Amino acid sequence: MTSLDLAPEPFVDRRAPRPAVRRRAPRWRRATSAALWTVVAVGVAAYLTSLAVPLWFQAQGERLLIVTSGSMAPQLVAGDVVVLRAVSDASELKPDLVVAFQPVGSPNLVTHRIVSLHRLPAMQEVRDGSGRMEPILDDAGLPILQPYIRTQGDANASPDTNATPVERVQGVLLQVHHGWGSVLAWATSAQGRAVMLVPPLLALATLEVLSVLDGRRRPSPVRRSSEDRRVDAFVE
């Protein structure tokens, strides 16, 4: 029989390269990272809270309104925030309720107490540029009556000059949060949003730069020479 010489099996290096020794970051580096992440967490939490609080009240069918005058002192003072519930029917309005309404001819909201209810002719402005008001008439030529409220601020000596149609009432007072006004106004302003968002963005950018620098300073894995591999193969 003829014997065949088999070629020797090639030596295979089964040893993995030695991992690089990762040095622990200095204390100042760890403290800097912790401070930057704290800035990110605080800024993002403050911004999300400024969005969530009004949305939470809206989900309950309520509305927040910042008090800007002292006409309802001492119950309401400038800087307070009132929680309003929308009015769905005129029968919900009664004397002594505090309501927020938009007076005729004014774009602003006023929060005063109802002192009386009335049914008065519905009025409309005369289209001659004079600003005069005239009653709205039905098909029979009679004035159309609609519910009105007379209001007065608790700190005012007399009722408001004009009665207000019920449909201009924006809501009834439910709660008062003293001192919320300045915080809410700041949080929803452009300056407040910048203060809450710009520092976290700068902190994230700084963290990214530090991460890149750490990667450049990190030692590369140790490569084994060919002589070491030949010795390993011989030993096997």
Identify low-pLDDT runs: 231-235
Instruction: Note the overall shape.
Output: elongated
Number of helices: 4
Mean pLDDT: 84
Structural class: alpha+beta
Please give a structural write-up.
With 236 residues, this protein is of the alpha+beta class. 33% of the residues lie in helices and 22% in strands. The chain has helices at 27-59, 180-187, 190-217, 226-235; strands at residues 62-66, 81-85, 98-101, 110-121, 123-125, 133-135, 145-152, 164-165, 169-177. The strands form 2 sheets. A 7-stranded antiparallel β-sheet has the order 1-2-9-3-4-7-8. The longest helix has 33 residues, at 27-59.
Task: Describe the protein's topology.
Elements: H1 27-59, E1 62-66, E2 81-85, E3 98-101, E4 110-121, E5 123-125, E6 133-135, E7 145-152, E8 164-165, E9 169-177, H2 180-187, H3 190-217, H4 226-235
Antiparallel strand pairs: 1-2, 2-9, 3-4, 3-9, 4-7, 5-6, 7-8
Helix pairs in contact: 1-3
Sum up the structure in keywords.
236 residues, alpha+beta, seven-stranded antiparallel beta sheet, 9 strands, 22% strand, elongated, disordered C terminus
Offer a concise description of the structure.
This protein is α+β, with helices and mostly antiparallel strands and 236 residues long.
